[in-house]
Design goal:
Oligomer: heterodimer
Strand content of chain A: under 5%
Radius of gyration of chain B: 23 Å
Strand order of the largest sheet of chain B: 2-1-3-10-4-13
Largest interface: A-B, 36 and 41 residues
Distance between the termini of chain A: 28 Å
Number of strands of chain B: 15
Strand content of chain B: 15-25%
Number of helices of chain A: 12
Largest sheet of chain B: 6 strands, mixed
Shape of chain A: elongated
């Protein structure tokens, strides 16, 4: 039964994909009708102007270009032109670093907030104000104060991915069932040991959910930050190709950003499943 | 900008005029010569020339005597004779070496537009390497980022819009930090592009209510568009909307009908035409022929810390600019700077900009070899003009010492020295008068010039 459901879902997915490609192909065929122009003039113009080619590339064009990129993912033709594999590597490294810093800060602080209602109340207004700030708003401030563009990018990832983790950790810690803590108290377990052996395992699923939300945000942020700062990374690739008005390459980058984002999310989903326990 | 005369040519005076490459008596003669020298080969020769010329001048203070001597013995004999008792080779080498750069690995930021041509092409064509520098040219996302990264010292020097170093030094839009301009990148090379639907609205008086894009507030583009509109009775602050838009987004916005036109740096104008989104209304050259556009900028601190690196950089840029100013090199340059590592644009578009034979977007092919040109000398009068416009449009409030600021930022004196050492012939003065849309600008009286404009922001 489940196998047949999975099978039917796969069929539907493929059908949707084919329909999407078909519509895309039809929509970007181009008009083909253009005014007459002298050949010497036409030679100086682009295909959009001369052959009525659509400004939006078709699916086959994107596919061919994607294949070209996948054949040489790690080429390096100087500081401003590197293969997609290298660019993605830079982005993932930046996200990893900023995210790791956020984990190091958010989980201990979240524990503290969750265990103390006083600190919770005191810090709440700050967290609520800082949480919704867009990464792009942080960027000029970071560039100006940190005075280093790659550190600024990492800082922006840190500052944007720290909040969901912090709030979820605090919530998870605060929501640990009172009975369990009372049992620990009765058995005279020390505060530190209580935190690690009772609260941490109990709050782990909530904490990991927060981490999962955060990695998604960090991956969203990196593209925006790299578009602004430039140099390396998948965000820079998007910007560089946008500069050249090459929509084909932009679409390829969008596809890859989505794939990597999904991978990162799946890794944390697996981790969450591992620490989840039946009550 | 002319180089140097052959001191062993009997038919020529040892004057300081001549052609660009220095092998011909005049610019006209240079143009006529079918085979022109390449900067690549001529450099050592030029240094040799400077030294030889100095020696010949010392030996024959009177030009007539030198000519007589050369006529009687012949140039090659004279050269051989001279080399006998004066080690020309060694002297030339010592001269060309100058000081060793304090810092060899440098980073230079650029914005991917054709204005940056000399800065960019100097890397693939080896102009930096010949000065003993290992330069990495780094593409940057926008003018504000270039500014911040140069201030942060991530870049040692950068491609900036000509007014930006003035604005940074004055503390407009950032903290005041002393910046300098050792060389102008390009002159001309901008244009007003309008959406195709406006092809019958060519009179600027009909443009009230339209939306225009400019690349940055502190740009020649901004000042020239404002000047052009104001001369036609349109107040750029109240009658139209001006928006700062990053150049690549200009084309997309024009196609999407968000803006009616833009005054943009080139390859963007041509790109809009290439994609069928706009047409060329006028080239900026028609507003002011020979106006500066972008500059090569470095902080005062960098010059003080690494004077030899700075001098070597200036030499490389001056050399590259000289190479780019020659029409016959333009095609090769277009191919060298088109790849994704540099400008990342179709070669056809860059060729149209650099060679000046271009599609105008309305079905015609136009030719203007001076559409973009390259001349490194940082005229201080350019700076004074920009300051008058900054004041005119309210960017500078209160009084400004035009001359002092211009002289601190635009390093005409230093560049003159470097150019003279390279065997080029820079202009002897740092101020020149020019005319913008038929109105003469006198750099000696900027305040009068400013007061002569009817349309300006009330201060």
């Amino acid at each position: 039964m489940t196998a047949s459901l999975r099978f039917r879902a796969a069929i539907l997915s493929i059908a949707l994909f084919l329909a999407f490609i078909g519509i895309w192909h039809l929509a970007t065929r181009g008009t083909g009708n253009v005014g007459t122009m002298s050949p010497e003039y036409a030679k100086l113009m682009g295909l959009t102007a001369t052959q009525g080619k659509s400004a939006m590339p078709g699916p086959f064009e994107v596919g061919a270009k994607l294949w070209e990129h996948l054949k040489h993912p790690f080429y390096d033709k100087g500081p401003n032109d590197k293969g997609l594999g290298i660019q993605l590597g830079y982005s993932i490294a930046r996200v990893g670093l900023g995210y790791l810093l956020a984990v190091i800060v958010a989980i201990p602080v979240g524990f503290l907030i969750g265990m103390s209602p006083l600190i919770n109340r005191a810090l709440d207004p700050f967290i609520q104000i800082l949480k919704p700030i867009s990464p792009l708003a942080w960027m000029p401030l970071a560039l100006y104060t940190i005075k280093d563009s790659s550190l600024s990018a990492i800082f922006v990832i840190f500052i944007c991915s720290v909040w969901p983790m912090l709030l979820n950790t605090a919530f998870g810690v605060a929501a640990v069932r009172k009975e369990w803590i009372n049992v620990a108290r009765t058995l005279e377990v020390g505060t530190l040991r209580r935190a690690f052996t009772v609260i941490l395992p109990a709050a782990a699923p909530t904490i990991l959910t927060g981490m999962r939300i955060s990695i998604g945000i960090a991956w969203l942020v990196i593209v925006a930050a790299e578009m602004l700062v430039g140099g390396t990374g998948i965000g820079y690739f998007v910007w560089n190709e946008w500069n050249n008005l090459s929509i084909t390459n932009v679409i390829i980058a969008i596809l890859l950003i989505g794939l990597v984002g999904m991978l990162l999310d799946q890794i944390l989903a697996r981790a969450t499943a591992m620490v989840t326990f039946p009550e | 900008m002319s180089t140097f005369d052959d001191p062993f040519d009997a038919d020529r005076g040892l004057s300081r005029s001549g052609c660009v490459c220095g092998r011909h008596g005049s610019a006209a003669e240079h143009e006529r010569a079918a085979l022109c020298c390449e900067a690549v080969e001529s450099e050592t020769k030029r240094y040799e020339g400077v030294v030889a010329s100095a020696v010949m001048r010392a030996m024959f203070p009177k030009d007539a005597a030198r000519r007589a001597f050369l006529k009687s013995v012949g140039a090659s004999t004279a050269l051989a004779a001279l080399s006998q008792f004066f080690p020309l080779q060694t002297a030339t080498e010592a001269f060309a070496e100058a000081g060793t750069p304090e810092k060899k690995d440098l980073k230079i930021g650029f914005i991917p537009i054709t204005c940056a041509t000399p800065i960019i092409m100097a890397a693939p064509l080896g102009f930096y390497a010949r000065q003993g520098l290992n330069v990495e040219v780094v593409k940057t996302a926008g003018w504000a980022v270039v500014r911040d990264k140069t201030i942060n010292k991530e870049y040692d020097a950068a491609h900036m819009l000509a007014p930006m170093p003035l604005a940074i030094s004055l503390g407009l839009g950032s903290n005041p930090i002393a910046f300098t301009v050792p060389a102008i990148e390009n002159i001309n090379g901008q244009g007003i592009t309008l959406a195709i639907k406006h092809k019958d609205r060519r009179d600027p008086r009909d443009w009230k209510g339209m939306k225009f894009a400019i690349p940055f507030d502190y740009s020649m583009h901004n000042y020239l568009l404002r000047y052009y509109l104001a001369e036609h009775g349109v107040d750029p602050d109240t009658d139209v909307q001006l928006r700062s838009v990053p150049p690549p987004e200009m084309v997309a916005n024009l196609r999407a009908d968000n803006i009616d036109g833009f005054l943009a740096p080139d390859n963007i104008c041509q790109r809009a035409i290439y994609d069928g989104a706009g047409f060329m209304h006028i080239l900026s050259k028609e507003i002011w022929d020979g106006h500066p556009c972008c500059s090569f900028a470095a902080s005062r601190e960098f010059i003080t810390a690494s004077p030899n690196s700075f001098a070597a950089l200036t030499r490389a840029i001056v050399d590259a600019t000289a190479y780019a100013s020659k029409a016959e090199n333009r095609k090769e340059i277009a191919e060298a700077i088109a790849p994704a590592n540099y400008i990342n644009a179709p070669v056809t578009v860059l060729e149209q900009v650099l060679t000046g034979t271009y599609a105008d977007g309305l079905g015609g092919v136009k030719t203007d070899p001076k559409r973009v040109d390259f001349d490194p000398f940082p005229w201080q009068s350019f700076a004074v003009w920009m300051l008058t416009q900054m004041k005119r449009w309210g960017q500078i409030k209160g009084d400004v010492d035009y001359k002092q600021v211009a002289e601190q930022v635009y390093l005409a004196t230093d560049t003159r020295k470097v150019m003279a050492e390279m065997g080029l012939a820079p202009p002897a003065v740092s101020y020149k008068s020019f005319s913008v849309m038929g109105k003469t600008f006198d750099p000696a009286s900027p305040e009068d010039y400013l007061n002569s404009f009817k349309i300006r922001k009330a201060s």
